[in-house]
Each structure stands twice: as structure tokens, then as C-alpha cells.
Amino acid sequence: MDKLKSVLSGEETRRDDRTVLETVNEASTLGWGTRVKGFIACFVVGGACAILGVCLLFLPRIGLTLFIVFYTFGNICALCSTMFLMGPVKQLKRMCDKTRALATTIMITCLVLTLCAAFWWKNFGLALLFVILQVLSFTWYSLSYIPFVRDAILRLVAMCMR
To answer: What is the pLDDT of residue 87?
Structure first.
């Protein structure tokens, strides 16, 4: 009966036109308080993983591997924490804006390459290089949310180069 009502009222066609991301976004509506709590929890877990990774860096033999895993997981958690505030669909759209597309691509590529260098290629020097690039790209990506900061930094660097 509900199916017949939705067909007659035209709601059926509107449901079919939705994308998968819109369906997920509608299904995951949270209250503002829950979103803030989720953001804080995810951000704290990410920060704790990054700090734990730095602390584990000094263990013999496995320290570097643990650092790479925990630090990369911490960055992923910190990135996902903002999805609680905006919602996953809006966050993905904002990540792919033309002002952030390059920073997002470099950041995600560095996350993947860090893990590849550590586990697949077993080249820890390269993995540490990718960790440094993770830090720089994540910082550059984060600064894109603050108006005019990246332009100011670029002008400052240009002034220092003269």
C-alpha cells in the first residue's frame, strides 16, 4: 500500500533519481550535538594515534613501522573527523573543489605511498619522506579552509626568495 501511495504521489520517481551519496547522507542525519561529539572523538583518536606513533618511533626494529602506521591512521582519523561536522557528501564535495583538489590529491597520494613504502617496498627512508610530505600536504589542505591564508603564505615565500 505504501508503494502505491508513493507512486501516485510522485515520491517514487524522486527516490529513484537520488544518487548513492545522497541516500547515504539522508540516512546519516545526526543532531548537532552528536556531530560535535563525533568530531571531537574522531579528532582526539587521530591526535592520540599520531602522538603514539611518535612515541613508538624509538622502539628498536619495529618502531619506524609502528610510527608510520599510527601516524598515517591518525591523519586519516583527523581528516574523517570533519565529516561529522559537514556530513560526508558535503565534505567530499569540498575536498574536490578546484581550490583544494590538488592539495587533496597530494595528501591522499602521500597517505597511500607512505604505507606502500613501509610495507610493500620496505624502504623506510622513502616512507619517512612521504610522512614529511603528508604533514606538508595536510597542512596546506587545512589552510585552504581559512580565507586568504594560502595566498598570504605564497606572497611571504615569494618575498623571502627575493
So the answer is: 85
